[in-house]
């Protein structure tokens, strides 16, 4: 049994009773990493010396708090001062940030200890973590399968027991899909809930940072620690802070659940469907009711997303020019040549493909037909959700149409890869919160249940997720490694 | 019918400041054509009276007081520069 099989409140109680120390927790993390990360390959960079020193300092300080002294892994697109941050790209292979992301500052205040940086698809573009320019992370449940992406390292590290929790980022499903594939809990908060300052931007109108954990209660605690308005991010929302963890009452009596027929339709595997229907039965047994509804524009989500996200990315990634930081190509003839060579050598194929798509969609003569059109369809998708939320408290469906696929299976087929995110993308386009929690297995691979809420109603999403979790044991299963 | 030509791909690559080989132009033309063809399903929808959404939150301008504050430390900034000289970032000649 690992220390990380305990929930945060149990860990704090053990610390309080002096059954364990904070250095023991950090030791547990590095022991597990050295035992299994050669196979899982979740971490890109470790920060062992600093982590061990911090553990000693925190132990001596007498500081307390629900997150205090607990090791955490951070996705490598979140900047950490003095700790290499690459976004899994060659163009940032040696980047040494000179400030901390707002979430990293907040974690420090809460007393977590960052043990290292986690692998991802390059610039968060991908659904399998195969687009990392450094290494392929493998699914702890079956090393031949992908962990999902883009926060593949964040989900795999938690599933493998290397850290009790981690931070990921989600632009079109990048927290929820890997959480589903790895059998852990992943929350994409409402757009604006968490500051994006220090998150290396992919698509600024969609990106959100969120927590990945082994259970719902810990997830609520971790989100509480990182939310809030931030003067450095003008899109961070000034909404009152609230306790998500305190509201986990286990009570869902009278809850009205909407189940979009599009989420159990074509392309969704039979086992996934059955696991969702079984989950709805559990919630029914607890006093909730559900009805089938329609989100009629769901099928346009993927096309809308790839046009918008790629357009925003083509603009955001213009900053990587080889001048101020990161990789610079040699033997350039002039400045333009320097930009072109640096970017050609520094970016991987998927990143180039999306920059090209976005540049095309924004270019003169095509802007109205592609970019503006996609923005209009986004309005329709957002309205689908608003309509349903007039009569229902949450929307429930699967997180992904299928369990984790094999490494190498679809990497050469961008459109099939994009289709993986068909059930998660609309949530980002609408800006609402969504969580993925374990709800079963298919051939030994975990399946995820997606619970979606109203803007800034993470509280209800967590309450439903927690009630379901109390009634089931899927989240207690661990991969054999 | 193809939606995008190799010539267009070369033009877009230039706008995006990406050097591309002939082989890449060929590959990207095929892949972008498939993606754009897929994206054209959006034309099934009549959006003539739909306002575009660029941002999901109902948010107006966010202003702060205009007052000076210390900038980044020069040494810190130069730490990540690929090439530097006399406290400045060095780049290739930009005037022909």
UniProtKB/TrEMBL annotation, chain A:
For molecular function, the Gene Ontology terms on record are:
ATP binding; glutaminyl-tRNA synthase (glutamine-hydrolyzing) activity; transferase activity
Name under which the protein is recorded: Glutamyl-tRNA(Gln) amidotransferase subunit A
Q: Which family does it belong to?
A: Belongs to the amidase family. GatA subfamily.
Recorded hits in InterPro entries, A to Z, give:
Amidase, Amidase_CS, Amidase_dom, AS_sf, GatA
Organism encoding this protein: Domibacillus aminovorans
Function field: Allows the formation of correctly charged Gln-tRNA(Gln) through the transamidation of misacylated Glu-tRNA(Gln) in organisms which lack glutaminyl-tRNA synthetase. The reaction takes place in the presence of glutamine and ATP through an activated gamma-phospho-Glu-tRNA(Gln).
A single GO BP annotation from the record? translation
Which reaction is the catalytic activity of this chain? L-glutamyl-tRNA(Gln) + L-glutamine + ATP + H2O = L-glutaminyl-tRNA(Gln) + L-glutamate + ADP + phosphate + H(+)
EC assignment: the record states 6.3.5.7
Q: Which HAMAP family does the record associate with it? A: GatA
Q: How does it assemble?
A: Heterotrimer of A, B and C subunits.
What is the enzyme's main class? ligase
Domain Amidase residue range list: 24-461
Q: Where is the active site?
A: 75 (charge relay system), 150 (charge relay system), 174 (acyl-ester intermediate)
Keyword S-adenosyl-L-methionine (UniProt): no
Q: Which Pfam families match?
A: Amidase
Its GO CC terms are: glutamyl-tRNA(Gln) amidotransferase complex
Which keywords does the record carry? ATP-binding, Ligase, Nucleotide-binding, Protein biosynthesis, Transferase
TrEMBL record, chain B:
Q: What class of enzyme is it?
A: ligase
- Which keywords describe this protein according to UniProt? ATP-binding, Ligase, Nucleotide-binding, Protein biosynthesis, Transferase
Spell out the reaction equation it catalyses. Answer: L-aspartyl-tRNA(Asn) + L-glutamine + ATP + H2O = L-asparaginyl-tRNA(Asn) + L-glutamate + ADP + phosphate + 2 H(+); L-glutamyl-tRNA(Gln) + L-glutamine + ATP + H2O = L-glutaminyl-tRNA(Gln) + L-glutamate + ADP + phosphate + H(+)
- Where is composition skewed (Basic and acidic residues) in this entry? 68-78
Region feature Disordered, mapped onto this chain = 68-96
Listed GO molecular functions? ATP binding; glutaminyl-tRNA synthase (glutamine-hydrolyzing) activity; transferase activity
Q: What's its EC?
A: 6.3.5.-
The protein's matches in Gene3D superfamilies, at most eight in alphabetical order, are given as: Glu-tRNAGln amidotransferase C subunit, N-terminal domain (1.10.20.60)
> Transmembrane as a keyword?
no
Which BP terms in the Gene Ontology apply to this protein? glutaminyl-tRNAGln biosynthesis via transamidation; regulation of translational fidelity; translation
Biological function: Allows the formation of correctly charged Asn-tRNA(Asn) or Gln-tRNA(Gln) through the transamidation of misacylated Asp-tRNA(Asn) or Glu-tRNA(Gln) in organisms which lack either or both of asparaginyl-tRNA or glutaminyl-tRNA synthetases. The reaction takes place in the presence of glutamine and ATP through an activated phospho-Asp-tRNA(Asn) or phospho-Glu-tRNA(Gln).
Q: State the family named in the UniProt similarity comment for this chain.
A: Belongs to the GatC family.
Report the PANTHER family cross-referenced here. GLUTAMYL-TRNA(GLN) AMIDOTRANSFERASE SUBUNIT C, MITOCHONDRIAL (PTHR15004:SF0)
Q: How does it assemble?
A: Heterotrimer of A, B and C subunits.
Task: Write down what this protein is called.
Answer: Aspartyl/glutamyl-tRNA(Asn/Gln) amidotransferase subunit C
Species of the source: Domibacillus aminovorans
Upper lineage: Bacteria, Bacillati, Bacillota, Bacilli, Bacillales
- Gene name, please? gatC
């Amino acid at each position: 049994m690992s220390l990380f099989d305990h929930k945060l409140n149990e860990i704090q109680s053990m610390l309080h009773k002096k059954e364990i120390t904070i250095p023991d927790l950090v030791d547990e993390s590095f022991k597990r990493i050295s035992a299994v990360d050669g196979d899982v390959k979740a971490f890109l960079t470790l920060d062992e010396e600093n982590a061990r020193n911090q553990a000693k300092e925190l132990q001596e300080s007498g500081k307390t708090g629900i997150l205090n002294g607990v090791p955490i892994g951070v996705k490598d697109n979140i900047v950490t001062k003095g700790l290499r941050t690459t976004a899994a790209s060659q163009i940032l292979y040696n980047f040494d940030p000179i400030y901390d992301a707002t979430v990293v500052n907040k974690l420090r205040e809460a007393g977590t200890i960052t043990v290292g940086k986690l692998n991802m698809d390059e610039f968060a573009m991908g659904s399998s973590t195969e687009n990392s320019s450094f290494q392929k992370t493998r699914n702890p449940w079956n090393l031949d399968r992908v962990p999902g992406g883009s926060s593949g390292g964040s989900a795999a590290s938690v599933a493998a027991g290397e850290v009790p929790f981690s931070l990921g980022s989600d632009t079109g499903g990048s927290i929820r899909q890997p959480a589903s594939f790895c059998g852990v809990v992943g929350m994409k908060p409402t757009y604006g809930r968490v500051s994006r300052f220090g998150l290396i931007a992919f698509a600024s109108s969609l990106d959100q940072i969120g927590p990945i954990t082994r259970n719902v209660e810990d997830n609520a605690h971790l989100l509480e620690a990182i939310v809030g308005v931030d003067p450095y991010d003008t899109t961070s929302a000034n909404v009152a802070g609230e306790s998500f963890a305190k509201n986990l009452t286990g009570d869902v009596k009278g809850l009205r659940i909407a189940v979009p027929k599009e989420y159990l339709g074509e392309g969704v595997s039979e086992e996934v469907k059955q696991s969702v229907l079984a989950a709805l039965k559990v919630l029914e047994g607890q006093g909730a009711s559900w009805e089938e509804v329609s989100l009629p524009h769901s099928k346009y989500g993927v096309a809308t997303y790839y046009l918008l996200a790629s357009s925003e990315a083509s603009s955001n990634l213009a900053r990587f020019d080889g001048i101020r930081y990161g990789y610079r190509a040699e033997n350039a003839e002039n400045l333009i040549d320097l930009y072109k060579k640096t970017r050609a050598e520094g970016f991987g194929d998927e990143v180039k493909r999306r920059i090209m798509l976005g540049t095309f969609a924004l270019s003169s003569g095509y802007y109205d037909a592609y970019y503006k059109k996609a923005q209009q369809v986004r309005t329709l998708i957002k309205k689908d959700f608003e309509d349903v939320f007039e009569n229902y408290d949450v929307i429930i469906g699967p997180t992904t149409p299928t369990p984790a696929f094999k490494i190498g299976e679809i990497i050469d087929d961008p459109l099939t890869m994009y289709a993986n995110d068909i059930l998660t993308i609309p949530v980002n386009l609408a800006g609402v919160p969504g969580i993925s929690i374990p709800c079963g297995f298919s051939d030994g691979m975990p399946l995820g249940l997606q619970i979606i809420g109203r803007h800034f109603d993470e509280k209800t999403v967590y309450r439903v997720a927690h009630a379901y979790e109390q009634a089931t044991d899927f989240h207690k299963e661990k991969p054999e490694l | 019918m193809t939606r995008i030509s190799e010539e267009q791909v070369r033009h877009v690559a230039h706008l995006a400041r990406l050097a591309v080989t002939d082989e890449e132009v060929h590959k990207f033309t095929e892949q972008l054509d498939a993606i754009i063809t897929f994206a054209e399903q959006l034309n099934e929808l009549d959006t003539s009276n739909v306002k575009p959404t660029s941002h999901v939150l109902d948010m107006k301008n966010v202003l702060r007081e205009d007052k000076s504050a210390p900038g980044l430390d020069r040494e810190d900034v130069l730490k990540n520069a690929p090439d530097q000289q006399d406290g400045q970032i060095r780049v290739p000649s930009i005037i022909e």
